[in-house]
Amino acid sequence: MKNVKLLSHPLIADCLKHLRDKEVKIDEFRHYSNQICQILFLEAIDDIETKTVEIETPLVKTQGDKLACRIIVVPVLRAGLAMLFGALELLPKAQVGFVGMQRDEKTAQATEYYWKFPEIKPEHTVIVTDPMLATGGSLLHLLREVSPFKPKKIKVVCVIAAPEGVAAIQKEFPEVEIYTAAIDDHLNEQKYIVPGLGDYGDRYFGT
Questions:
Q1: Which long-range contacts (CB under 8 A, 24 or more apart) does 27-32 make?
Q2: 3-state secondary structure of 206
Q3: CA distance 41 to 105
Q4: What is the enclosing helix (H) or strand (E) of 142?
């Protein structure tokens, strides 16, 4: 699939095993969530721009590359917050936008209840974090709002994706890159990812 980066690594496989296990306790879930999210985010910023600067080692002057951070990280509330912590450890200077989306459990339609963004400029890369890409409804709403600002790139980072959600985003926004640790089998009648891991936010935050 074009612009879909399905990551494969022994650490990712191990993290997924623990995250899917319904018997895993909250502290373990958070540990493996933070670990897998950092790996995913590290891959997503593989093409981040750098600039060359002059530095001085204990011996001589030389040159080194410095991150030219023009990134806005956007966690989709609430579960997306679980991915924000690892992202900011890697990029402490990144700006952060917040989008609150709530899904109607009967219709599976998402509605926006909160929106707070820094200014989006053409040189920015916007990275959206949402651990479970199910129908894609929340992300499509966000992408429709963000794309008119014409940022340099828009990327989506998720832990688990459903084929239906990936297809929905690719159909409307084929240029958006999706980074994920797994593409699961399907959505059930309640629009939950199968086999999935349940409600990510509930399991991470203990609600």
A1: 29/203, 29/204, 30/82, 30/204
A2: coil
A3: 29
A4: helix 137-146
Digit-by-digit pLDDT tens for the chain (207 residues) are: 788 999 999 999 999 999 999 999 999 999 999 999 999 999 999 988 888 999 999 999 999 998 877 899 999 888 888 889 888 888 888 999 998 877 666 665 667 788 888 999 999 999 999 999 999 988 998 999 999 999 999 999 999 999 999 999 999 999 999 999 999 999 998 889 999 999 999 999 988
Q: Residues in the chain, how many?
A: 207
Strands (E), the chain: 4-6, 50-56, 61-67, 71-77, 95-96, 98-103, 110-116, 125-129, 132-133, 153-161, 177-183, 186-187, 193-194
Active site residues: 103, 107, 199, 202
Query: Could you tell me how far CA 120 lies from the centroid of its own chain?
Result: 18
